[in-house]
Amino acid sequence: MTEVSAAVPRRVLHVDDNAMSLRLLAQMLERLPGVRVSSLSDPLQAVLLAPSLQPDLILLDIRMEPIDGFEVLARLRASAALLHVPVVAVTAEAAPAQLLRMRQTGFDRVLPFPLDLVQLLDTVAALLGTRRSAAAA
Q: CATH classification of 10-128 is 3.40.50.2300, yes or no?
């Protein structure tokens, strides 16, 4: 794997209806060089804008209104432009049945709350095909 080049930024789309979660995750991801975060609080807007944003990775909350993360994922996967973009569930939903449902419906990974910074950065770096520096943690 290679380090992210600042000349070729990797785009991460984060969708969560909680403003504090959006800010917190953006601050965490700023530790990865060359990563640009687009944050959206409206899941319907995310479905509409995601193809034009051309994300390399999508981080998606599960419990949102008016549609939940499962429905957002289904709609994103219906777009040819987003079919192969990895999608990570970032959620407080950690019951075994919910985790199984997330994997069965096509989430590539699940990051449970409370977020572990090292796990988050390692997961994002791995899915972006990059290597994070030790200083990022």
A: yes
